[in-house]
Hints:
The protein has twelve helices and 13 strands. It has helices at about 30-40, 45-55, 110-125, 145-150, 175-180, 185-200, 215-225, 240-250, 290-305, 325, 345-355, 355-365; strands at about 1-10, 10-20, 65-70, 75-85, 90, 130-135, 155-170, 205-210, 250-260, 260-270, 275-285, 310-315, 330-340. Strand 4 (about 75-85) and strand 5 form a beta hairpin. About 45% of the residues are buried. The model is unreliable at about 1-15 (pLDDT under 50).
Amino acid sequence: MGGLCLVRAAGLVVTTAAEVFDDLETLPPDCAELFAAGARHSFQLGRPWFRAVLTEAMPAGARALFLLCRTGKGPGVLFPLRTLAGGARLEGLSTLYSCLYQPLAPARASPAELRAAGQAFGDFCQGWGTVRLDALDGDWPGLPPLLEGARAAGLAVLRFNHFGNWYEGVAGRSWAEYLAARPGALRETIRRRLGQAERDTRTTLETIDSGAGLEAGIGAYEDVYARSWKGTEPFPRFSAALMRAAAAEGALRLGLLRLDGRPVAAQYWVVAGGRATVLKLTHDEAARARSPGTVLTAAMIRDLLERERVAELDFGRGDDAYKSLWTGSRRQRIGVVLANPRRPAGLLALARHRLGRPVRNWLRG
């Protein structure tokens, strides 16, 4: 399935060919360049991430859809998408685990090419009343021209705040310097509890970063999770699939804290492009008095700074209160709804947006 269109952008006429693929494995070989460029920016924009999502984090009835918009001799711009409700809905291929999502484009793509790809994407979206993309970086330079193209195709772009992402730049910083910047109460807890754990022969710390011991480590993580305060995951096999995918790329850092041989805290990080992102962390509630989660997080960060020399710590998705203790900066991830005013669902989305939140809340009340 595909089509051609001519897009006039900044005085240039760009020919765009749009092709649709239903699986990662059927994409043209030159799309490897797009996934490689994405992975350099974030592990969550690389092929292993999307493969794990397709395998273990797709809602019932969802189907993958990859829209490739070629705008020249290169691979073009790839939109990883999915349909739901028997094809009645279209949205970006992000998940509840996604910290970042964006269309994949080569670094050399010009604003005119991105605008043309955005218009081809907008033309494709005419078949739906609304199309939602979320977990977007509002500061990504490629986003404005893509959205300009969608507007040129006749779609309204409705922007909303999606979630906060806490992080801290740590390039060149030592563990001591990082620790000195933490709030006093956390600093004292780390000093006391981490020291106790390292002196206690009953306690062991372990990091798994490759295939050796991986399956046992995943089992230990799942054991701790089952004894934690956290509820059942909506996609309970995704973490294991992602850990395997990250380990195959050398990006996994699975940390385990054991007491008398039994795991009492577990967390896994992905390290790529100088950024260390913690995706899940959990601990056994029965061991809470020992602060196992704090001990393990401190030990992992110390290793990431002293051994791996990462440039950024990323605490992932959401504004959980503890994240502001470990990191000092927050960035807003956004979402956009592309509304088609020629369809009832698009008109309804526009009406709701223009009413504003106070009026919507009043109407619901």
